[in-house]
Specification:
Layout: H1 6-16, H2 24-34, H3 36-42, H4 47-60
Helix pairs in contact: 1-2, 3-4
């Protein structure tokens, strides 16, 4: 249901940043954001915790949200 709003959200993010067209970052952020409601439904008992984690990632980025060195994905750096 939420996925139908992904393109509109990406376009709004672009407009808010003064761009005519969404950037790859706008599209990725929109994709991530529209994926939050289904996750919250799946994690009903811990929905608030998951919502807080999602917005921490959006605000501060993956590393700043508590990922530790030595985690999966560090080898790619």
């Amino acid at each position: 249901m939420w996925a139908r709003h992904e393109a509109a959200l990406a376009a709004e993010l672009a407009r808010d940043a003064g761009r005519d067209e969404p950037s790859p970052a706008d599209r990725v952020l929109a994709h991530v954001v529209v994926g939050i409601p289904p996750l919250l439904r799946e994690q009903a008992g811990r929905a608030r915790e998951h919502l807080d984690a999602a917005f921490a990632l959006i605000r501060h980025g993956y590393d700043a949200a508590g990922r530790r060195r030595g985690s999966v994905g560090d080898a790619a750096r």
